[in-house]
Write the structure tokens for this entry.
Amino acid sequence: MSNSTITASPAKDAKPEKAKKPASLWSDAWYDLRRSKVFLFGAALVLLLVIIAAFPWLFSPVNAFDPSTCDLTRARDGLDGTHWFGSDNLGCDTYSRVIYGARVSIIVGVVATIVTSLVGGALGLLAGFFGKWTDVLLSRIAEIFFAIPSILGALLILAVVGRDNAGIGSVVLALSLLAWPLVLRIMRAAVITTKNQDFVLAAKALGAGPIRIMIRHILPNALTPVIVVTTMNLGVFIAAEAALSFLGVGIQSPDISWGLMIADSRNRFLEAPAPLLFPALFLSITVLAFVMLGDAVRDALDPKLR
Amino acid sequence: MQNPSVDTHLLPADTLGTAPLLAVDNLHVEFATRQGVARAVNGVSYALNAGETLAVLGESGSGKSVTAQAIMGILDMPPARIPKGEIRFRGTDLLKLSENARTQIRGQQIAMVFQDALSALNPVFTVGWQIAEMFRVHRGMGKKAAYAKAIELMDRVRIPAARQRVHDYPHQFSGGMRQRIMIAMSIALDPDVLIADEPTTALDVTVQAQIMELLAELQRESNMAMILITHDLGVVADVADKIAVMYGGRIVENAPVHDVYKTPAHPYTKGLLESIPRVDQKGQDLYAIKGLPPNLLDMPTGCAFNPRCPYRQDNCVTDVPPLHEISGTRSSACHYWREVLDGVEG
């Protein structure tokens, strides 16, 4: 240290400073994340699950959607060389069904999260930025949805919407419809906090118009809490999809969903536990992976927890 | 309305009979609060010509910053309200313009430097991005050209190694350097008027002088008019041409800068000057103006300064003193300005 201060010329000084570059909130967060074991483990699991969801045939020799692969004579068989996780009530291979079931969970989780964050985020930005009647209107609408108990509300929505077109679309709709108000509230609060900061006033004093102030100056500074909720929501939605499918209003046969598989095998659980336990295990691991990811992101982005 | 084709840049600073570049005329600003109406500015008038520096001096709550924010049009309305007054820029009353028209003026013709540059710069963008944004938005420049201009400006405000530091974030700069960046952004579009709201308050004393010098230099180069808002008498002496002292939302004294230091004509100004610590006072108690600044919700009757004034007479409690003209360039809002000027002790 003492050496370098004596010899370093001003020009040389600039170099090492560039190299360490503590930079912005985002690169700080990324720096933290790369060193977080929880994040790396969660991210690896999520990556694996996404690959399974995208290319299930790489992991399973049997196409679970093909009914001819099921053999009723082997219903509720235990684990063996051909049926690694045993077989279910209809003699279908549990392993291949678990693998093929990942897709529904991932799609529902990701799509519902994107819809929720975009809708809630955009409306929260508008409510927080414009205030006055825009805020009153949007916040009151959000509160109406917020007041509906989530499982009951989803059951109701799916009973109405999902009767004729059950499936991924209806489940995503039900989950998004009930979850966007939370994102709106978080975004709105963050925008209001940011709006009153000096740099927004300074931007205005230097001639930035209202839209520019909203998009360029407020949005990037108010995004952190929404990103945290977004990562957390992924796990929550996947669990919710399984719950709805278990209750019989979500994904319907012949589509494959872990929640549905659990529901189908619950009556014969003592006799044949495998077709219930394996989808439940995969569901738990998936939710855990996303929650770990969300936790790590929150730790990295929340300055108060530093 | 004045003839808009008159180019005020070409006029000498003190030409009599021509409209000033910027004129605040009998401006009133009040804030609706739960406790009542706070009258922050009560009839402030001042005028500014190109190339001129006006220092607005006053303590916290005297209305100096609110006046500046009214000129910029960045007051939150409501709760703020401008019941009376005009702000004429090149003869046009800014208060009558649409929000859109005012946005066009902000930054391009009237710009502002804030007190605390760290909180006035956007933390998530590099300083280069923020300076370049001025050129991209208002001059329609491409990214490359705008960055080149940003580096040029950073050089102009004397940031060492501008080319390397253009991609750094605000928190990576020292306080003085940040204020230079803030100044660079505010002069980017060559404004005619620069308002500096306590630009050196958040800085070390050694850096304060450098920043003031930089502002003065930039002003000389471009013939900008400057309003320097401060509570620090030490800062203004070398830079300002004239001083307006504010107290309780009013201007209590107008004067060329050197007259104020030699012969203050208002008891408040006199008190301010006497409370500057001096070397020959060693061992003595420092002088302080007695009492507290006025409560804006409950102003004293008559002269706002009367509860703290050593010259107070009965009529100070009943009559608001008008601005008495002392000479062509001086005025004082004190019934007893003659006594104050002559140095009679109160």
Chain B touches chain A through 34 residues (CB under 8 Å). The radius of gyration of chain B is 21 Å.
